[in-house]
Amino acid sequence: MSRSIESALADDLPKGESPIAGRLLYQTLQARGLPFEPIHTGGGYFALWLELPDGEILITDDDAQIARPAEFHSTWVACFYRSVEDDIDDEPLEVYIGDGTLSHPEDTAACVSAVSAWLKARQPPHEQHGSRNSLLATPTYQLSA
Q: 33: how many CB neighbours lie within 10 A of its CB?
């Protein structure tokens, strides 16, 4: 039986099943209050995605995949893509690119910290101290420490 990407990220694993690399990343992002969702990017590849009012963040590994076995994880890559309507710059902004020297848990922690810090830095100063996060498309989420 194959499982959906959503199940592989969030559901309990059957005994003997190895987790996919994106599972730890997804669960760590969720624990921080960052509502990333899995998205199919084509050809059997998946990313974690967060919609923002002015664009989106996609996180994958360095081969554009979150669904490979965790034991084969190399590094996370998080990029911000501006909305099509915003003609300022069509090149993605690199939010985090691991250097490939960290373990899977270390790289995951570093990626989540970088994404959290980047999002927090984009908040207006009056919203950085415990109020709702205006940068997320759904303002009911808050960044957690």
A: 15
